[in-house]
Specification:
Layout (H helix, E strand, L loop, with lengths): L1 H4 L4 H11 L3 H32 L5 H9 L3 H23 L7 H15 L7 H11 L4 H33 L5 H24 L2 H21 L9 H16 L3 H25 L9 H14 L11 H13 L5 H17 L1 H28 L1
C-alpha cells in the first residue's frame, strides 16, 4: 500500500516537515480555533433547529426518527452504493487536474482535505491537498495550479447551478412564494455575477482591465485586514495567473468538466434517493423540484460560512423542499435531508481522517525506503 501512496522525493520530506514541525503555541492556537468552530457549528445547528420548529408547526421529531428507522436493508445498501459512486467521481475530478494521477490517489486527495474543511471553514483543505500532490512527486507549479483549479471547478459549479435551478423550477412548475421567492431571486443575481466573471476572464484584455480597476480597493481592504498583496498591479498578477491556469488546464477542460458533471449528478442523486426512501412519492415532490432545490442550496453554500455549511444547508433544503411540496411531508423531508447531510458531511470527517492516515503512512514508508537505499 505504501508504494501506491508516496514517492521518496524532496517534496515529500518538505511536506512532512511542515506537518510535524509544529510549536506548542501553534498547537494551542489550532486547538482553540477548532474548539471555536465546533461551538459555532453547534450554535448554528441549534439555531436552525429552532427556526425549523417555529416555522413548521407540523414538524415532529419522533416522526422524523421513525422515517429514518424504517429504512430497509436494501435501501441502506443502495444509499451506501450511491455514496461510494459519489466518492469515486469526486476522486476522478481531483485526479483529472494532474497529469497521470491515478483515481485512487484522487480519492485520497479528495477525502482527506474534505475532512479538514468539514471541520474548519474556508479554504482549509487547499494546503493539505497541495502537500499531498507534492508527496506524490508533482511539481510545485503544477500542484498549485491543480489546487486552484479544483477550487475553480468546485465553486464554479456551485455558482452555476442556481441558474440551472431556475430552468428546472419553470419545468417543474414549482410555486414561487415567500422564502422560496427570495432565494430564487438571490440565486439568479448570483448567476448573473458568475456570468460577468466568466465573460471577464474569457479575455486577457478584460482580465487586465478588471484587475487594474480592482487594485486600489483591494489593497485598501487587505490593508485593513493587515494582509498584503503582491507589489505588481493586480491586473498584471491576474493576467499571469490566468495564463498559468490556461497553460496547465489545456487539454484537461473536457475531462474536468465531465468529472464535475458526474460528481454533481451523483450527489444530487443521493438527495433524491434519501427523500424517496423515507416515503416521499414522485407525485408529491418530483425529481426536477429536488434538483432545483439542490442547485439553489449549492449556490447558497458556495462560500461556506460554517464548516460543511452546517445549519445553513439543512435549513435551506428543508425550507425549499417543503415549499416545493406545498407545505406537506415536512417530517419526511427533514428525515431525508438529515440522511443526506449525514452521508455528505458528517461521515466524510472520520472517513477523510482515515484517508489522511493512509497517505501519511505511505509518506513515512517512502522515507524509510529512501533512507535504507541511501544507507545501503
Amino acid at each position: 500500500m505504501a508504494d501506491d501512496h508516496a514517492k521518496p522525493t524532496s517534496a515529500t520530506t518538505a511536506g512532512t516537515t511542515t506537518l510535524d514541525d509544529v510549536t506548542p503555541d501553534s498547537r494551542r492556537t489550532t486547538i482553540r480555533r477548532v474548539v471555536f468552530r465546533i461551538v459555532l457549528v453547534a450554535a448554528v445547528l441549534g439555531l436552525s433547529t429552532w427556526v425549523l420548529f417555529n416555522v413548521f408547526d407540523d414538524l415532529d421529531w419522533n416522526e422524523v426518527r421513525r422515517s429514518i428507522a424504517e429504512l430497509s436493508d436494501a435501501e441502506a445498501l443502495s444509499l451506501t452504493f450511491g455514496w461510494m459512486v459519489w466518492v469515486v467521481t469526486q476522486g476522478a475530478l481531483t485526479a483529472s487536474l494532474v497529469d497521470k494521477l491515478a483515481v485512487r490517489r484522487g480519492v485520497l486527495a479528495s477525502l482527506g482535505p474534505t475532512a479538514v474543511s468539514s471541520v474548519i471553514p474556508g479554504p482549509s483543505d487547499l494546503p493539505v491537498r497541495f502537500r499531498m500532490y507534492q508527496s506524490w512527486g508533482v511539481s510545485s507549479s503544477e500542484a498549485t495550479t491543480a489546487v486552484v483549479g479544483s477550487g475553480v471547478f468546485s465553486i464554479g459549479a456551485n455558482l452555476i447551478l442556481p441558474s440551472i435551478a431556475g430552468v428546472l423550477i419553470m419545468l417543474a412548475d414549482v410555486p414561487l412564494s415567500g422564502f422560496f421567492s427570495v432565494i430564487v431571486t438571490a440565486s439568479v443575481a448570483l448567476a448573473i455575477i458568475v456570468a460577468a466573471a466568466g465573460f471577464t476572464l474569457g479575455s486577457q484584455r478584460r482580465t487586465q482591465a478588471a484587475g487594474r480597476w480592482l487594485d486600489r480597493p483591494a489593497r485598501a481592504v487587505m490593508g485593513r485586514l493587515r494582509k498584503s498583496l503582491p507589489e505588481e498591479n493586480l491586473g498584471d498578477v491576474l493576467v499571469q495567473k490566468r495564463a498559468e491556469a490556461f497553460d496547465h488546464l489545456s487539454g484537461k477542460w473536457l475531462k474536468c468538466s465531465v468529472a464535475t458533471v458526474a460528481t454533481t449528478a451523483a450527489k444530487c442523486s443521493l438527495l433524491v434517493l434519501t427523500l424517496r426512501f423515507v416515503g416521499i412519492p414522485e407525485d408529491a415532490l418530483g425529481w426536477l423540484a429536488i434538483a432545483a432545490a439542490y442547485g439553489l442550496v449549492a449556490g447558497m453554500t458556495a462560500i461556506p460560512i460554517t464548516p460543511g455549511s452546517a445549519g445553513v444547508a439543512e435549513l435551506g433544503f428543508v425550507g425549499l423542499l417543503t415549499a416545493a411540496a406545498d407545505g406537506d411531508w415536512v417530517n419526511q423531508i427533514t428525515a431525508g435531508v438529515l440522511l443526506y447531510r449525514l452521508m455528505t458531511w458528517l461521515v466524510l470527517i472520520p472517513v477523510g481522517m482515515g484517508a489522511l492516515g493512509v497517505w501519511r503512512y505511505g509518506v513515512r514508508a517512502a522515507e524509510r525506503r529512501a533512507a535504507a537505499a541511501t544507507a545501503g
